[in-house]
Amino acid sequence: MRFKLADVGMMSDADCWVDLQLPKKDVSLSAGEILLSISYLPAANRLGVVVMKARGLQSDKLKDTIDLSVKLALKHQSTKLKKKQTRRVKHKMNPVWNEMMMLEVPRELLAKSSLELEVLNQAGAGGDMDSMGRCQLGLQAAGMGLQHWKQMLDNPRKQIAMWHPCTPEPTPVPQPKPPLSTSPALVLEGSQSDVHLLRCCRKQ
């Protein structure tokens, strides 16, 4: 609903109701979507993840070969606990996997745990794996990743499926080479213990 402010009497006490619309998605930031179903089994301390299918993957990254898989990583804070990967699906722009993966994770760790998924394409036989996009689920995630994780925690033992937008891999920016140093070499002065301490600090 649209109307001109010039046509509205600012002193009027009349109520005006309008329909709210969802914000438009920024297509330029999307690298396709992946459909996931997750559930948590408290009695078994198991997290079930079903990688179902993907759509809208960027065709310009697929080149001549379509050989798609999904890599999954379970993390607790910054520590990677478990890694799994689906089978590869060839020659399909909208691949279907329907693969379930069971991950053991105690309930008390769920609040600080997260799932990271990455869609990969293998460029030719024995070629490199190109990233098509990735998404994250967890209480530290945002958007659908946060919403999906909360619904899983609120509904134990129930499979909950949602589409997740994939974020494209950022293009690395080449760093300029540092200029050649013309300064004289640094001479360390001091005891042997001072030199040893400096070396230890550099290793940390």
TrEMBL record:
Give all residue intervals belonging to the C2 domain. 30-164
Q: Which SUPFAM superfamilies match?
A: C2 domain (Calcium/lipid-binding domain, CaLB) (SSF49562)
- Please provide the Gene Ontology terms (biological process) for this protein: calcium ion-regulated exocytosis of neurotransmitter; synaptic vesicle endocytosis
Highest taxon of the source?
Answer: Eukaryota
Q: Which GO terms describe its cellular component?
A: axon; dense core granule; plasma membrane; synaptic vesicle membrane
Do you know which Pfam families this protein is assigned to?
C2
Any single GO molecular-function term of the entry would be: phosphatidylserine binding
**Gene3D superfamilies, alphabetically?**
C2 domain (2.60.40.150)
Record SMART domains: C2
Name the protein family.
Belongs to the synaptotagmin family.
What is the protein's name according to its record? C2 domain-containing protein
